[in-house]
Predict the structure of Histidine--tRNA ligase.
Amino acid sequence: MTEKKVKLQSLSGMNDVLPKDQPFLKKIQKSIEGTTSYYNFQKIEVPVLEYAEVFSKAAGDTSDIVEKEMYSFRTKGGDLICLRPEFTPGVVRSYIEHGMHNLPQPVKVWASGPCFRHDRPQKGRYRQFFQASLEALGDKSPSIDGQIIQMSYDVLKDLGFKNISIQVNSIGDNECRPYFKKILVGYFKSKRGSLCHDCQRRLKENPLRILDCKEEKCQQVKAGAPQTVDHLCQLCHAHFKQVLEFLDELELPYVINPYLVRGLDYYTKTVFEISEKSEIGMVYGALASGGRYDGLVKLLGGRDTPACGVGIGISRIMELMMEKEMKTEKKPAEGPKIFLAQLGEMAKRKSMKLFEEFRDEKIPVAESFSKDSLRSQLSAANKMGVRWVLIFGQREALEGFITLRDMESGAQSEITLDKVVQEMKNKVKS
RNA sequence: GCGGUCGUAGUGUAGUGGCCUAGCACAGCGCUCUGUGGCAGCGCUAGCGGGAGUUCGAAUCUCCUCGAUCGCCCCA
């Protein structure tokens, strides 16, 4: 029989986060946890799976999103369900389902975990990726917009990013946006011939998107285009002005980007994107982006509830940190400083017991019980960068002591067995 | 979903139709050295992404497929 060797591989666009990369992930999570806890955002867990409707309703039928880019499939029972492509609609669903409008408003929550999009994978765009999402529901005040931008900025600053750029814009609401769209479409129609092929199509499907087309010829056309900020209704205008005043007060390095828009309809008023510029001024993809979604709660069947949030792209941040070789926790601080080496059956049994005694004292100790030769154990200890090796063999076991080897100097000494834990405790401290 | 480029042990690579039973380096494991690490020597493990085809002969050419990457669409 010939055995067919099937090579297993991960699904397209799905990555492992290997042990060596965990410190990055951990650092990012810690930063987010610290920030959210300081600002009193509470953790919420929402399911990875939801009815597809939760997301498709939110996204609307404006784009390819539903049919092309959601990870959706049918259950055995025939329900159309979907792996979450982002957190916001799930959080909103939860807010509605649990009657959180009865809680003191605003409800400030944050969630974190894997999300899924059925895109063609690209750098910084994978089918499974980690995101954190901060949401403030039931708050119409511009101060919350400012606070959320501040928090996003804080997280990135904590992580060591130095050239953070914040772009903000306001895209109005149901009052003024339809009106603005008309003006915009009117303008672009008059210049139709100068638009790229895609934008001629966008003119019908999603005219706001023409504003961030990268084509040279569209750039020129849009330079003369009407800007959202000039066509906001009174309320939106006042709101945006106040948001900017907060940002000024907070001394955040923001710029207004009149071309910044969102693809989905539920967004209202403030939108922002935060990215990191490289030394040569190149901008990496957005590391965090968000804005107001005053219409979403109602859209999903709840009361009319203003809300604002941000999605923080953990995977992207991680990738960039690794690319820039940014610092994580110092390595030596992580690993144990003591290695327990054993020789012979009896000593091995006893050293497993000793290992537990160290554990009781919460002193980290490395071991390699599966190796027998002292040589390979010392070699292992060396690779781990451990300073102290406790050698426990036949001789030691019989006479009730243990040999301590200082890997830096090579000096060895003997410690009686009942004093080992205490003595090592002192060594590790110093 | 569309287009370009790419795919050799864990990693980095050599190899451009027969000198390939696929070479090298690093890593891993082991031995020299059954109670002493870092050095050295020796050895072992492990690979042409997968499948079809062309050919006397394929890592090398063709097609399909899977994956990666870059760009487009879309972007929550």
Notes: The longest strand of chain A covers residues 107-116.
